[in-house]
What we know:
Chain A is of the alpha+beta class. Chain A has helices at residues 42-50, 96-106, 111-124, 140-152, 170-187, 198-204, 222-227, 232-237; strands at residues 4-13, 16-26, 31-35, 57-62, 65-68, 82-84, 159-162, 191-195, 207-212, 215-220, 242-249, 252-254, 259-261, 274-279, 284-287, 298-309, 314-320, 327-331, 342-347, 352-355.
Amino acid sequence: MSKLVLRNLHRRFGSFAAVDGVDLALQEGEFVSLLGPSGCGKTTTLRMIAGFIPPSDGTIEMDGEILSSPQAVMPPERRRMSMIFQSYAIWPNMTVAENVSFGLKLRKLPAEEVRRRTGEILEVVQMSHLAGRYPAELSGGQQQRVALARAIVVKPSVLLLDEPLSNLDANLREEMRFEIRRLHDEFRITTVYVTHDQAEAMVTSDRIAVMNAGKIEQVDDPFSLYNRPRTRFVAGFIGRTNFLEARLVGDRLGLDGFELPAAMVQSAAGPGERVLLSVRPQSITLHHAPPPDDGDRVSVPAQVVECAYLGEHWDYVVVPQGSGTRLRVTAAPAQRHQPGEAVWVRFDPAQIVAIS
Amino acid sequence: MSTTVAPKVAAGPVAPSGGLLRRLRYLEPATLLWLLLVGALFFLVVWPVAELLITSFQARRTGEFTLSNYAAAYGRQRYVDALLNSLALGALAAAISAVMAVPMAWACSRTNMPGRGFAWLTVLAAFIIPPYLGAIGWILLAGPNSGWINQTWSLLTGSEASLVNVYTFWGLALVIALNSYPFIFIFTKSALDLISSEMEDAANILGAGTWTTTLKVTLPLVWPMMLAGIILVFLETIALFGTPAIIGIPARINVVTTQLWQFFEAPVRAEVAAAYAMPLLLITAALIGLQKLLLSRKGYVSQTGKGGERRVINLGPWRWVLFGWCVVVCVLSVVAPMIALVQASFSRAWGRGFSLDNLTLANYEFLLFGHDAARGAIVNTFVFSAASATLAMALALAIAYVVRRNLLPFGTALAFLCMAPFVIPGIVMAIGFYAAYAGPPLLLYGTATLMILAFTTRFLPIAYANGAAGMQMIHPEMEEAVRILGGGRLTAIRSVVAPLLKKALLGGWLLVFILATRELSAAIFLIGPHTRTISVLLYDLSEEGNFEVLSALGGILLVITLVFVGIGMRLIGRDFMLRRSSE
Lengths: 356, 583
C-alpha cells in the first residue's frame, strides 16, 4: 500500500488553477521531488500535503486515511509530518537545542528521551558544538542543519521540504544536496521535496515528478527522466536539448534539409505524420572527415557557425548542409573547430527520443 | 505512479459527518472573533463618526432633519474668520517649521556638520515636549512687558516698549512651529538617508558644485517626503487645541478648535459644533489622501536606496553656520522655554528671577498635597493612559494578526477601520463620542469609561501601525513550523509569536501611553468633575493665570514623559518614538 496518495488534486485561487489535477502515490520510505519552474504549483501542492491549504477538489490520503478533501482538512498539527521551510523558520527566540527539541516536547516525551534524541540528531547533523547558540549567531548552512535536525528528530510520517537550499550559496548548496540524501538513506523517511533546481532533484530523489502549469508532466527516476522524456516540456526542462521537427516518409524521417532512417527512432507515428525529436547536445559528435558508416549511426555534412569555450567543454552551433536547423553540440575541450569550418555530424540513435 | 488504490472515502476512518463536525469546530471561533472585532471597531470608530454626521443634520429637541445647524455654524463672520485663521495659521506654522527643519535634516543626513548627534537630540526633545508646555514656556519668555526677553531688553536699552509679544498671530505660529518641526525633520531626513551619493556624484561629474547639486538634485529627490511632512504639520496645527487656547484666546485670535470649544460652553450646542467640525474633517481626509499619493510616488527615492554608497559632503567653514542654526533652533524650541518653565515652577514669583530667596518647593507641595484636583488628575492620567494603551494595543494586535494571516474574509476592511481615526482630528472625534455616547442610552458623560474609549480610538492607528509592523517581521513559516510539528495555533502564538513581538508591543504600548498622558483636545470635551487629567487641569490653571503652580504641574507632566521615554529608549532603542509615530 502506498504511504501517501494525492488523488486528482486541484487548487484554484479565484479563476487561476494553481494545481490542476495532480495524481501521485509515494511508497513508504520513498524520496520524491516535485520539480518545475516557479508558478507551476509545486509549492501549493506541498502546502496542501502539509494541510496549510485546503484542496479545491480531490483528496490527500496517508496510510489509507483521508487527510484533506474539499469538505474537511485535518489541521497540520495533527498530521504527524514535519517540514523544512524555504526561510528555514528557525525560531530566533530559542537556542539550537530548544529548536530541535520543540517537536519532541510537544509529543510529551519524557525529558530524558527528549535530551537523548536531541543530542543524537545534533550529532548526526554535526551541530552538537553549537547546541547552546541562538539562530542569529549561525551561518545559513548551520541554520539549514538545525532545520533538518528539527524536522527529522520527531521521526515524522512524511517529511516535506520546500526549496530548502534556494537561499544558500552555490558550494554549500552542492554539499547540502548530498547531506539530505545521506540523511534519507540513514532514516528512510517518506519525503516530498520541492525544488526548481534539476540537479538538486536528481541528486536527492528516488523519483522526480516534473510539474508544469499545475499538472504533473512525468514521474520517473532521474535516469529515465533525462534519457526518455515523454513530453516536450520535460525534455526541455531537464537538461539542454535540440528539438527537431521531422516527418515520417516511408522508412525515412525527413528533417529540414537532411534525413535519418526511421528505424533509428522508436515512434508510434504513422506515415506522413509529424514527429518531434529531442536530441541531446552531447549525443551528437563532430568529425573532420566523414566517419566510417557502421550502419547504426548516421552522419550528415554540416558547417560550424558559432563556438564558445566553457572550460569543461565546448559549445558549438552547427548547421547541416542545405538546412536551416541550428544544432547545438557539446564537445570535449580538446576537440577544436573554427566557425565556418566544414564538419560531419553524427547522430547516436540510442540517444534520440521521439516525443508524442 | 497510480499503481495503488486507496480505500473508498466511506470506508476510511474519517466519515463525512466527522468532517462536518471538524469543520464546525475550526470555523466557529474564527467567526466569533470576527464578530467581536467588528463589534469593537463599530463601537469605537464607525458609530461616533456616524453620530457626528447625523447630529449635524438634526434639530436639537425634535431630532428632525435640518440644515439650520450649518446655517448657525457658518452664519456669523466671526465663525468664518476662525476657519480662515486656522488655515492661515496652519500654513504659516508649516512654513516656519520647514525653514527650521530642512537645513537641519540635510546637515544631519549628508554633511560633516559638527554636533549631528546634538541636533538629533534637539529634535527628539522638541518632539516629546507636550505642545502646551512649550506655549507656557514662551508666555514666560515673551509675554508683553513681563516676559524674560522683554525684561532683558528694557534692562539693556531702558526702553519701555516690548521687544516681542507672544500674544500675536506670528507668535502663536512660531510657538506651534517650534513644537511641530520634528515631523518635517524626520520625513526629510529619512528620505535623504536613502539617496546614494552616486546621485550627487553624477551631477558633480557633469560640472555641478555642491550647492547646485543640493538644490537641483538632492532636495528635489526628497521633495515628496518633505511635502508629506509639511502637510502633517499643517494638519496638526489646524487640529491643535492647547496652544491656540492658551495663547490665542487671550490674544483674541479665534481658530476652529477654540471656536468649537466655545460651542461647548453652556448651553452646549453639540449639533452646531458637529456641523462646524466638518471642514476640519474633510480637509484632513483630503490632505492625508494627497500625502499618501505623494508617498506612494517616493519609489524613485528608494530605487537607489539600498547598497548605494554614501559619503558626507564637506561643507568647509559653512558647517559652522549650519551648526549655529541648529543651536538657535535648539535654544528656541527646547532650552529657553523649558528653563523658563522649570524656573517658574520652583519660584515664589517667577518674575523675580534666579535668586535663592525666590526658590521654593511650595508649588509642587501644593499640587501634590494641597490641591484637591491635582492628585486626582495625576492618578486619572495614569489610569486612562495605561488602560487605553492596553486596549488599543490588544485590539490592534488582534486585528493585525487576523489581517496578516488572512484568518478572516474582509480582514483588510478591519485594518481600514483601524487606521480610519488617523484622518479624524482628536477634537472632532471627541465631538463624535460626545454625540454618540454622552447621552442616552449609554449615559457615559463624565465617566472614566468614555475617556478611555475615546483615547483608545484616538491612538488606535498608532497602535495598529506598531502591531502590523511587528507582525510583518514574523514570517508566517515561523508559525507553520510549530504547527507541522504538532503545536496548535495557540501554541504557536504563545511560544513563538508572543516572544518575538515583545519588543514591538512594548514600544507601541509606551508610545500610546506617552501620547495619551498629554492628550488635551479629545479630553477637554469629554471630562466630567471626576475625570480631569493633568492636561485638562493645566488648561484650567492657565485660565487662572497662576504660572508658578501651572509650571509645576507642567514639570510633573514633563517628568512623567521623560521617565517613560527613558524606559522606552532603554528597552527598545533610542529612536523608538520618532520611528513609529511618523509612519
